[in-house]
Design goal:
Elements: H1 2-19, E1 21-27, H2 29-32, E2 41-47, H3 53-67, E3 71-75, H4 81-90, E4 92-93
Parallel strand pairs: 2-3
Antiparallel strand pairs: 1-2, 1-4
Keywords: ATP-binding, Magnesium, Metal-binding, Nucleotide-binding, Nucleotidyltransferase, Toxin-antitoxin system, Transferase
EC number: 2.7.7.108
Family: Belongs to the MntA antitoxin family.
Amino acid sequence: MNSITSILQSLKPRLSERYHITRIGVFGSVTKGTQTDESDVDILVEFSDPPGLFRFMEIEAFLSDTLQARVDLVDVEGIKPRLKTRILSEVIYL
């Protein structure tokens, strides 16, 4: 988890300026310590100015390339109701 969170922490200013991300955190296997080489990186974000679909996909691709892992990017406003409690209880904000 340390290298992922360190990288994300270092990207915060750029993510804020370029993509209007106001808050970023990790959840899932990264926070549980069960991540494998095949695991994706679950990232929860909040935006000051929500992006459109293509911009959202661009952010996800940028994070995947930077972390060299598959990223599942989730907007806090778009969490499915049945998953919301679990995700919000697991998330570690950076």
